[in-house]
Design goal:
It comes from Phenylobacterium conjunctum. It holds the Pfam family SUFBD_core. This is Fe-S cluster assembly protein SufD. Residues 89-315 form the SUF system FeS cluster assembly SufBD core domain. The chain is mainly beta. It has one domain. Helices cover 14% and strands 45% of the residues. The chain has four helices and 17 strands. The strands form two sheets. It has a nine-stranded parallel beta sheet with strand order 1-3-5-7-9-11-13-15-17, covered by helices on one side. The protein is globular. The protein starts with a helix and ends with a helix. The relative contact order is 0.10.
Amino acid sequence: MSLATALRTGDLTQLPGKRDEDWRWTDLRGLLRTLPPAAPALDVSGLAPGVFAGLADETLVLASGQETVSLDLAAGAERAVALRVVSRDGALAGSVRIRVGAGAKLRLFETYEGDDSAYVTHAAISLVLDAGAMVERVVLAADGANGVTVSEADVTLAAGSEFGQTVLTSGARRQRLETRFAHPGASATVRADGAYLLADKRHADLTTVADHLGAEGVTSQLTKGVVRDQARGVFQGRIIVEEGADQTDARMGHHALILSDQAEVDARPELLIFADDVQCAHGNTVGALDEEALFYMRQRGLPEADARSLLIEAFVGEVVDRIWNEAARDVARDWIAARLRGGR
């Protein structure tokens, strides 16, 4: 069952729902009583520059009327690419295929841009790294409050390849940003980070699955969340160490702040280990702002709202600091600061 199948067939029974274990906190079947028609074709030439326009060598747009995007990066090449997923009133089912040749380097700056309409979007993304390739994927998801978005990325690594990911989101009516890694071991490394900043009734689901298939692989994951009002944050992280994947080093952490009585965080970190001689750990905490630190800052003249914003920005900042590209870090910090000031 999947949103992609439901959009293709019009069959609502194909939507995942709360009876599906991996979707129980992001119920689409109970939410969507009808599926919208396909969105009108979008004139992408009229789009304003995206937030990463100044960092990218080229821009690719996934939108209605332009539902397929592909990129092949030759061995040894280096490129910065902005990928914009643009949602407007109606349904969009699109696919992105990216291959990064041996020893090549790709900086992928990905944005989800939705208006205020009740759209439904599904993006299927395939990323294949050849031996020794390096990819950094930075995702800023600014969906509309009435939108429904599901992004499913499949990342396949090769020996010695390196993949870094940071997903930052302000949620939507219903949103799931999922990444699945086929990890070969063989000195390949994965960093899979994320942060959600949710207010009002917004919902965000950050789901990852890292499947270690061979020996000597590394996965590091850090996710942080902040929810207020009636928002709901979901974190699901699963690391699988298959039989024979010895000397795997895999670590996962999820930490969230709940800033109101009606907000909710659901977290499920999982380690499934079928090999010996591994170093694996996970941690999960959910709490409130440090009242002592807040009191200390207010005693020194900071208004409460400013003090709270600074504490939250510092809390989430650990995720941003792990972004490799300095210019992308600056964009991410500005994006977070804008949302803490009340932007969408």
